[in-house]
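Design job #97: recover the sequence.
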């Protein structure tokens, strides 16, 4: 009788062990999501200097340069993004290598949409020393376009200064529009 109970116990333990063995699954995606649940980035970098170039007759032309003291990589998320919590400096270059500079207290780059969201004391400075001030500004990397739907103020050495609620511009700041919320145009260069 003792051997029969021992045999049945051995069968139960074996069945449980086999069940557990087959229920375990090596799923790398689930392991990556552990950081998401804990709200942790997959990587942290300091003193970032990212350069974006375009091929032009086998010569790479610098189009944009993003600099920041700290970068947090959340590419482990379903909608991947990169965060710059300690501020960002974005330089946008035209065909003549003149640059517009955008400064912000905070930035976030959405990988799937190539959209950069700049927030907090956003300042855009042109080569002509015109300055645009905003609390938030978006940069569409694909379209090379800057825009905001929050109040902006322009201080210009070359054109009329003004304020508005909507801003829309190319990265060269050659074709920009500042509108009031009603849609009345204030400035157009």
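Job complete. Output follows.
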């Amino acid at each position: 009788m003792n051997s029969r109970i021992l045999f049945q116990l051995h069968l139960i333990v074996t069945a449980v062990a086999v069940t557990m063995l087959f229920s375990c699954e090596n799923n790398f995606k689930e392991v990556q999501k552990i950081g998401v649940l804990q709200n942790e980035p997959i990587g942290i970098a300091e003193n970032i200097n990212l350069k974006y170039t375009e091929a032009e007759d086998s010569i790479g032309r610098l189009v944009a340069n993003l600099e920041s003291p700290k970068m947090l990589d959340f590419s482990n998320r379903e909608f991947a993004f990169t965060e710059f919590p300690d501020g960002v400096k974005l330089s946008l270059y035209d065909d003549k290598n003149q640059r517009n500079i955008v400064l912000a207290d905070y930035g976030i780059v959405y990988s799937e949409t190539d959209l950069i969201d700049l927030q907090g004391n956003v300042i855009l400075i042109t080569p002509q020393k015109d300055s645009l001030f905003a609390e938030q500004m978006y940069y569409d990397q694909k379209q090379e376009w800057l825009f905001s739907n929050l109040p902006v103020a322009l201080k210009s050495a070359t054109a009329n200064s003004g304020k508005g609620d909507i801003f829309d511009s190319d990265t060269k700041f050659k074709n920009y529009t500042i509108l009031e919320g009603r849609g009345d145009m204030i400035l157009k260069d």
